Amino acid sequence: MTALTREQVRLSKRLSLVLRHRPEVAGLTLDPQGWVPVADLLTALNITRTELDAVVAGNDKSRFAVVTGADGVDRIRANQGHSRRVDVDLGLPPADPPAVLFHGTPRANLPSIMREGLRPRSRHHIHLSPDVPTALVVGRRRSADVAVLEIDAAGMAAAGHVFHRSANGVWLTAVVPPGHFRERSE
Q1: Rounded to 10 degrees, what is the CA torsion of 78, 81, 83, 89?
Q2: 31 exposure class (CB count in 10 Å sphere: 0-12, 13-18, 19+)
Q3: Which structural domain range is residue 168 located in?
Q4: Which candidate, 92, 168, 174, places its Cα nearest to that of 129?
Q5: Total tally of structural domains belonging to the chain
Q6: Would you say residue 87 has pLDDT above 90?
Q7: How far apart are CA 91 and CA 167, in angstroms?
Q8: 117 exposed, middle or buried (CB, 10 Å; 0-12, 13-18, 19+)?
């Protein structure tokens, strides 16, 4: 995977906006699983298939998936991260998580997280990482001063919390209550 150019990063952000948060700004409607025909997206964003394919292939987090349906139509969707206002069901089956997962967050968020736990706020799920380096990258998108939380995923699963694993390896769950995580000391 090669690094995206500045223009490709801009396109990736536009794709995220349209496929995760506000499809209506491009005049698109996602199906119930979040898919939209690639041809419709290309027309709406006035881009070429080559430009789209380069961004999908070069995205460091594999944010997007492209499939060809039984009808022969190529479709695209975001793998996760949809706003609550976008009504999608990704159809991800429940999955047994590893014993421990991780969450990177700006250190300034810690007081409220310690009181309330991790809540999805405007998203459908909490996103958890399989390792510390990935959690650090995620947390640093919002701040250079990042805390990494170690999540007792096995304990949560035993207590009845449901986990899903997206196509790009991100673990999803509805909430992470207090008592199921601790701050990692690095």
Answers
A1: 60
A2: exposed
A3: 100-183
A4: 168
A5: 2
A6: no
A7: 11
A8: middle
Q: Is residue 95 domain-resident?
A: no
Q: What's this model's pTM, rounded to 2 decimal places?
A: 0.76
Report, as an integer, the average pLDDT of 16-39. Answer: 94
pLDDT tens sequence across 123-177: 778 999 999 999 998 888 888 899 999 999 999 999 999 999 988 889 999 999 9
pLDDT at 98 over 90: yes
User: Which are the contacts of 126, defined by CB distance < 8 A and separation ≥ 6?
Assistant: 103, 118, 119, 120, 172, 173, 174, 175, 176
Q: What is the pLDDT of residue 129?
A: 95
Report residue 86 as tokens. Answer: 């976008």
Q: Is 135 helix (H, G, I), strand (E, B) or coil?
A: helix
Residue 37's DSSP bridge partners are 75
